[in-house]
Amino acid sequence: MIEFCVFGDPRGKGRPRFKGHAYTDSKTRAYERMIQGAFLQSGESMFPEKVPVGVEVECYFRIPTSYSKRRKGLCRGNLELPLKKPDGDNILKVRIWEVKP
After folding, report:
1. Count of C-beta atoms within a 10 Å radius of residue 31
2. For the residues of 22-78, what is the DSSP string, one character each?
3. Please, which residues have CB within 8 angstroms of residue 88's CB and are 6 or more apart in sequence?
4. What is the reported pLDDT for 41?
5. What is the chain's Cα-based Rg?
6. Across residues 40-67, what is the average pLDDT?
7. What is the DSSP string of 76-91?
8. Closest of 101, 47, 59 to residue 84, by C-alpha
9. Domain ranges of the chain
10. Contact between 12 and 88 (Cβ < 8 Å)
C-alpha cells in the first residue's frame, strides 16, 4: 500500500475554463502539483498502465465558523459532518488524476 499526505484544505477538481481554448485555473493547477509532489516524496513511482488499483482518501475539513455552538459540538463529536464543497467525487478526481501514469 502506498500512503502519502497532502496538507491544506481539500480541493476538488475545478471545471475547465475557456478563453479561446480550454485551460485549468491556477488554484487547481497548484493543488495538483502539491499532490504530485507529496506522492513523489513518498518514494513511489507512477503506476503501470492498465493495472487496477484501489484508492482510499481521508479528508479533514474545518468546522465552519458560521455554525452555532450546538452544531459545532455535534461536529466535534462526529455526530454531524460539515456539508460543503468540494464533494467526494471531485476530491477523488483531483487525487487520482495526479498519480496516474
Report:
1. 23
2. EE--HHHHHHHHHHHHHHHHTTPPPPPTT-----------PPPTTS-HHHHHHHHTT
3. none
4. 83
5. 16
6. 79
7. HTTSS----SSPHHHH
8. 59
9. 17-93
10. no
